[in-house]
Every structure is written in structure tokens, then in C-alpha cells.
Amino acid sequence: MADAEDTPAADETDAGTATADEAKEEGKEDGKEKEPIKLRQQVDIRDVGPCKKHITVTINREDIDARLDEKYSELVTGHQSLVAGFRPGKAPRKIVERFYREEVTQQVRGEILMASLEQIAEEQDIAPLAPPDLDPAKIVIPKEGPLVYEFEVEVRPQFTLPDYKKLKIKRPTQKFTDADISREEKRLLEPYGQIVPKEGNPPKVEEGDIIICDVVTRESGRTLNDLKEVRLRVDPQLALKDGVAKNFGKEVFGAKPGDMRKVEIVLSDTVADPSLRGKTVVANFTINDVKTVRLPELTEELLSQEFGVAGEEQLKELIRAVLERRLEYIQRQSARQ
Questions:
Q1: 19 phi and psi angles, rounded to 5 deg
Q2: Is the pTM of this model over 0.85?
Q3: CATH topology of domain 36-154
Q4: Which residues contact 233 (CB under 8 A, 6 or more apart)?
Q5: Sequence-distant (≥ 6) Cβ neighbours of residue 126 within 8 angstroms
Q6: Where in the chain is CATH 3.30.70.1050?
Q7: How far is Cα 185 from Cα 178, in angstroms, rounded to an integer?
Q8: Considering only CA atoms, which of 238, 230, 242, 241 is closest in space to residue 263?
Q9: What residues contact residue 249 under an 8 Å CB cut-off, 6+ apart?
């Protein structure tokens, strides 16, 4: 009798194993996994800031119950449940559900949440900049009714692009000449040169010279500044602490020692006296002396240590490359504007 009773039990075990194997095979077709079944969910998206969305998701109860039922069925028929007093795979369904409810609910919650978020990413027109403000541990599957959860996420700003393909952009162009190269070479070498009196009888001011001058600035009859023996480099513009002389180079060009030139200075908005901010005042530049910069000799040591080149021709090539890169930068800035 004992043998007769054991035999059906063994048959039932084999049948249970076969059923589990068949269930696994149902998930495959031609060696490929079946596509996961999409959740039936309702997604409500509303703006809560310039780049922030509040998303509320409602998941159909039937989809939740189907996944719970699938998990419990695997436990009952797949010999995965261990319930005291019962052999694996022989415990009644209700007892398995009661024994494994918390574990199964947490597992299904994680799977549903992951599937839900993946569907939102695929189906909704949002571009998150960071992970959503969502704590899965606080989401609870209710005993009845749909699962509702919500979260906020930062997204990229959305805007309509103009028909930029028809726009025309002007950019500055320039072909650098030998004169441009020589001018830039002089500028690079001047810090290594020596300031000496300028030749000429009398010497005349040119761009790049150094002038020693007295400067008196007046406005409406009052003296704002009275400076003596100021040394200035003659550039097209002269930047001062409280303003800028936009045409400085032109206004002092050709001056001789003893000459006085009037130079217009546009005061900045940071001048201490509010009544002078943004005003244009006139400064008298009295030229006391004119000096120039004697450029250094282009020795191998200077070219190698300071510029990393082997000769004057390589220096000119380096200068041309620097000028071209500078022009490219100006072109990009112009295009952005």
C-alpha cells in the first residue's frame, strides 16, 4: 500500500515539473523572448515651473492583479514555495498567498513601477535632465482599485525654433598681409625691447610710440584731473580708469614735443560723481617727450625660450596661426550675436 500511495505523488511531482517547463517555453517563440505586455495606464502631465513637470500615473487594477496572480501561480506550481507542513508545490493557493503576500507585493511593485516608467519615457514627449523625484518605498499597492503614484522631474526647456535655414549670417573676413604679420610681431617683441628716445628733428608721434605728457581734464570750467609726466603708449584707443578715449591714436598722431592736443574722453558709468557718468569730457595732452621701443635682437635663445621656434620664419608662421585663430574666434562670436 505504501508503494501504491507513493507512486501517484511522484507522478504529480513530474506533472508539476512538466507544467512549469511548459510555462517557461510559452514565453519564447522561435528562440526569442516575447515582448512584455504593456500596462494600461493613464498619465497626467502638468507644468509646475519653467523646466519642471508634475506627473501623475494611474495603473489599471486588472494589470496589477494579473501580475500578482502570475507570481502566486509560479510559487504554487513551480516548487518555489516553502510552507511549513507542506511538501514543495503542495501547499494550497490561499496559504501560499497569505505566507508570501508581502514578498510578492514588493516584487510586483518594483516590476510594475519599472515598466510604467519605461512606457512614460517611450510614449511621452518629455526630456528629463535628472532622475525623477520618486521614492519607490513610499508607493503602496492598494488592496482594491488602481495604483496611483506621482512625482516631479526637471526637463529640458521646450521652444519653437525659427526658420533659421533661411537666415543669412555675416561674418568678418580678413586676409593677413606681411604688414599685419610685422605689426603683430612688433607687439609680441616689445615687452623684450628697450625704451629709447625717438629719432627725428623734432620727433613726431606715431602709433606704437611712448609719449611723456601732462594731462589736464576739464568739464564745464572745472578741473577734474591735473596729471604731470604721465607715460602712455600710443594705441588707437586709450583705456583709462574712469573712461576711454576712443580716437586717441588719431588725435595725438603727428604731435611734437611742446604740442598740445585735445582728446575726447567718454567717462564710464562707475565714476564717483553721478553727474559725470556717461559724459564726454575734453582732456588737454601736452607732449613733453616722444620715445619708441627698440626691439630686441632675434637671437636663437630668445626665439627658443620665449616662443618655442627655431628661427624668424617659424616665428612669422606662429604669428600667422595666432592671427587666424583670433579671427576664427571673432567669427564665431559674430555668428552667435
A1: -65, -40
A2: no
A3: Alpha-Beta Plaits (3.30.70)
A4: 208, 209, 210
A5: 45, 53, 120, 153, 155
A6: 36-154
A7: 10
A8: 238
A9: 207, 234, 235, 236, 237
Amino acid letter, residue 3: D
* Residue closest to 107 by CA, chosen among 76, 83, 74: 74
Give me 107's grid cell. 516584487
Q: Three-class SS of residue 324? A: helix
Q: C-alpha grid cell for residue 195?
A: 625704451
CATH of domain 194-294: 3.10.50.40
Cell of 82: 516553502
Beta bridge partners of 312: none
Per-residue confidence of the chain (337 residues) as pLDDT tens digits? 344 444 344 444 444 444 444 444 554 545 455 566 789 999 999 988 888 999 999 999 999 999 988 887 877 776 555 665 566 666 677 777 777 788 888 889 999 999 999 999 888 888 888 888 888 888 889 989 999 999 999 988 877 887 878 788 888 899 999 999 998 999 899 999 999 999 999 999 999 999 999 999 998 888 999 999 999 999 999 999 889 999 999 999 999 999 999 999 999 998 888 999 999 999 999 999 999 999 999 999 999 999 999 999 999 999 999 999 999 999 999 888 8
Task: Please give the angle made by the CA atoms of 184, 185 and 188, to the nearest 5 degrees.
Answer: 85
Which residues make up the CATH 3.10.50.40 domain(s) of the chain? 194-294
